């Protein structure tokens, strides 16, 4: 299973740098790491650093043309958009990817 996340333009690949870090980006970075540990390949693409990845993906390109950058972040799972315009929390990701609940 592969999840491609198309992020808006950010200062670095995760957006968790600089003097004012968005807590939502910190949480999503942790959730992406957790997904990798669950066997999901997560690949993030930053519009500011990898614009070619956005243009080479027909689904992402069409979505951007139709909706503009407000659709970012855009999550594409195996060729299907599963989230847009916001970073989902871990419970949402678990539901979207049909993952079992985390064992504590």
Q: How is this structure best described in words?
A:
The radius of gyration is 13 Å and the shape is globular. The protein has helices spanning 23-37, 51-56, 58-67, 90-96; strands spanning 2-7, 41-46, 74-77, 80-84. The protein has a four-stranded mixed beta sheet. It contains four helices and four strands, in the order βαβααββα. The protein has a single domain (2-96), classed as Glutaredoxin (3-Layer(aba) Sandwich), CATH 3.40.30. The mean pLDDT is 88. By secondary structure, it is of the alpha+beta class.
Walk me through the topology:
Layout: E1 2-7, H1 23-37, E2 41-46, H2 51-56, H3 58-67, E3 74-77, E4 80-84, H4 90-96
Parallel strand pairs: 1-2
Antiparallel strand pairs: 1-3, 3-4
Unreliable sequence segments? none
Query: Going across the major beta sheet, what is the strand order?
Result: 2-1-3-4
Number of domains: 1
CATH H level, superfamily name? Glutaredoxin
The CATH architecture is 3-Layer(aba) Sandwich
Q: Could you give the count of β-strands?
A: 4
Shape: globular
Tell me the distance between the termini.
24 Å
Question: Under CATH, the topology is which?
Answer: Glutaredoxin
Which percent band covers the strand fraction?
15-25%
């Amino acid at each position: 299973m592969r999840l491609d996340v198309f992020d808006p333009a950010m200062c670095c690949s995760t957006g968790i740098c600089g003097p004012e870090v968005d807590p939502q980006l910190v949480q999503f970075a942790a959730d992406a790491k957790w997904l990798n540990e669950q066997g999901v390949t997560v690949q993030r693409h930053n519009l500011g650093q990898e614009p070619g990845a956005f243009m080479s993906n027909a689904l992402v390109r069409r979505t951007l043309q139709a909706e503009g950058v407000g659709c970012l972040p855009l999550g594409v799972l195996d060729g299907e958009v599963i989230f847009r315009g916001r970073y989902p929390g871990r419970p949402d990701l678990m539901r979207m990817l049909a993952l079992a609940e985390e064992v504590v």
